[in-house]
Design a protein that fits this description.
Shape: globular
Number of helices: 16
Helix content: 40-55%
Strand content: 15-25%
Order of helices and strands: EEEHHEHEHEHEHEHEHHEHEHHEHHEHH
Bound molecules: zinc ion
Number of strands: 13
Distance between the termini: 68 Å
Strand order of the largest sheet: 4-5-13-10-11-12
Radius of gyration: 22 Å
Structural class: alpha/beta
Largest sheet: 6 strands, mixed
Amino acid sequence: MSYLKFLECRQCGQTYQIEPIAACENCWAPLEVVYDYKRIRAEVPRTQVESRLPTMWRYKELLPVTGEPAVGHSTGFTPLVAAPRLAKALGVRELYLKNDAVNFPTLSFKDRVVAVALSKAREFGFETVGCSSTGNLANSVAAQAAAGGFKSFIFVPADLEPEKLINTQIYGATLVKVSGNYDQVNRLCSEISQKYSWGMVNVNLRTYYSEGSKTFGYEIAEQLGWRVPQNIVVPMAGGSLITKIHKAFGEFKKLGWIEPAATRFYGAQATGCSPITTAARNGTCEIVPQKPNTIVKSLAIGNPADGFYASKVIQETGGAGEDVSDPEVVEGIRSLAETEGFFAETAGGVTVAVARKLIRNGTLNPDESTVLAITGNGLKTIGAVREAISAEEAIRPKLADFEDRYLKLHAAASA
Ligand SMILES: [Zn+2]
């Protein structure tokens, strides 16, 4: 049974039928999916959710897919783990990592949004799907389009990490490299989706696609024992994820599934592309577009589609926006790996480094519970840390060589 009601403009409140529409026709603002919360509250007890398989679809009443999902049956319900060693390094008491670096099938949180978008694409009757992407979305659309039997066209900036290009082409997707930045690629995609009857997951399917991000928030609340953290640090590219985690916590409160406690939302970006954190710091929601220049390609969106709303969530919840330099990002990736054994991609390095900065400058209260959103896997951005890792020369297979090279060094270092 579906609890989907209609789409509603976030700006002017105009409502629309459930159709593949990119934005409000009056004011071009993004649209929001509206559900019949009253009926969900009456008909779906929390225990029913708990009895289901551990995937993102256990929250299906709160997703815009009416039938069975077409793809992504095993996506979601990634681990939320306590991180005591990183907590100690950062100087906080209660720290958790929500680890979408191990999401299925392509090791990033984008698998959630694509599972919803392509299921919706099937319901709308699209046979060809596509996206503009900074990498992770490309990988996920390519993989899940293959699994769902769709044709796919993936548009990316030409300077993307080689790992992410290979992780797209391997699935048989048509990869279109565009010499331009993400914002230019995205504009091209908008034109294409207007001309051809294709399901572009982050253009004409964007309203549905972004709903998939809510499951990241639902899982955090459920895995914390049906409560919300006091603080959450979220990396921002287009700015959608942070707004959708906020929506997710709000929906759970509306349904009476969790207590109405408050969470402060902290947004994280790289200094080389920080339009949202800059706006939040200036106390405004108006985004001034930037030309990205950072190793954090997955967050390099200079004109973020949901930047306005992301900055709003940050300010309204009493959080903050903060950004970090590329060397700090690498340091963040390393300290996460060395303390907790997680290898996150550059966006994860941003999150950890921003959390450190917020704690050091007294913005984030170290005595409160905090969740860090880890959204992608480090194996996809090896190049970003290559220089930080020292190259080892081989030894001969001799005990003496080993002792000479390593144990003497070790002894010298610990003397
Ligand atoms: Zn409108």
